[in-house]
Amino acid sequence: MSDSLFARAVRRLRRIISEPRPKKFPWSEAVEEALRQPTPLALLPAEDAELASLVRRACARERPDSRSLFFQDGAPLACWREEDVGLDGDWLTSPNYYPLYHALLQEAVGTRSNVRLLEIGVRTGYLGVVFAPATEGAAVYCGVDPNIYLHNGLRLADQALAAMRAMRPAFSYELIKGYSHDERIRRRLRSVEKFGYIHIDGDHSLEGKLADLELSRSLLKPGGLVLVDDYHHMPAVPEAIQRAFALGWYRRFAVGPTVRGLAVLS
Questions:
Q1: If you average pLDDT over residues 150-162, what whole number do you get?
Q2: Residue 107 has what DSSP assignment?
Q3: Are 262 and 255 a contacting pair, CB within 8 Å?
Q4: Rounded to the nearest 5 degrees, what angle is found at the Cα of 138, between the Cα atoms of 195 and 54?
Q5: Distance (Å, rounded) from C-alpha 164 to C-alpha 129?
Q6: Rounded CA gap, 74 and 261, in Å?
Q7: Can you tell me the distance from the alpha carbon of 141 to that of 120, in angstroms, rounded to the nearest whole number?
Q8: In DSSP terms, which residues pair with 227 in a beta bridge?
Q9: Is the pLDDT of residue 1 over 80?
Q10: Residue whose C-alpha is closest to residue 196's, from 69, 100, 99, 105
Q11: DSSP string over 26-49
Q12: How far, in Å, CA of 229 to CA of 199, rounded?
């Protein structure tokens, strides 16, 4: 193993060891039912033709590079962390990560207005910054994060998203500090207008992913999309999706070729 690969492995191990474990919440009966699904589970359905076509069109679009997305006038937005460059396959600067997200959102949103996106797991606001220029009319970003993985993550997200709002007056945002598993936050999300797009990148345990998938189906507008990061990166992600499909929570499925794999559900 090269020094570079060894150093990355050490950094990753340190992150895993030091990462705060999510606060425990009682899981809903729907999640408990999903956990009781027999093994082996039924296979996932074949990729949906319409969703797969959406992914192909997004892949064919011309994409800005990451620095074009996250820099203004040569200076980085607050969300940009040099410490993130080079991590885990260099997801931050790869053309097949945030630039592909941008293309996919552009393709999905089209000319629609009043577009609403919920993100579970904000980090420093990278996806919110990508979402804003992918829309043409009124758009709302809502992010939920406990703000413990990075102690200043929501502060950096707020600064970056405020810069996007200054450039795009039709863009607005809200950041909610807390766990998506917290019933108080769930009630809050259920009390507002539903979302056309939901990005799940929070708790990566099987139970946590199931809880977010179960919540998202109740918050999604008809015809909306749920995007689940780390499909090829974390074993709990495809298993949670498999269990969700076994119970009929979602009907359509495709995979986008991002650095870590992106499941697209509807």
A1: 97
A2: H
A3: yes
A4: 55
A5: 7
A6: 30
A7: 11
A8: 199, 264
A9: no
A10: 105
A11: PPPHHHHHHHT--SSPPPPPPPPH
A12: 7
Do residues 244 and 250 touch, judged by C-beta distance below 8 A?
A: yes
- Report phi then psi at 112, rounded to 5: -65, 145
List pLDDT tens digits, range 103-151: 999 999 998 889 999 999 999 999 999 999 999 889 999 999 999 989 9
The pTM (predicted TM-score) of the whole model is 0.90
Q: Evaluate whether 154 touches 145 at the Cβ level (below 8 Å).
A: yes
- The position carrying tokens 């139970």 is 207
Using H for helix, E for strand and C for coil, what is the string for 188-231?
Answer: HHHCCCCEEEEEECCCCCHHHHHHHHHHHHHHEEEEEEEEEECC
Residue 247: strand, helix, or coil = coil
Number of alpha carbons in the 13 Å side-chain half-sphere of residue 44: 20
71 within 8 A of 80, measured Cβ to Cβ: yes
Which single residue is written with the structure tokens 């758009």?
139
* Exposed/middle/buried for residue 49 (C-beta within 10 Å: 0-12, 13-18, 19+): exposed
Predicted confidence (pLDDT) per residue in 11-66, tens digit: 554 554 444 455 566 788 999 999 998 877 777 889 999 999 999 999 999 999 99
Nearest to 163 by CA among 76, 83, 74: 76
**How many residues appear in the chain?**
266
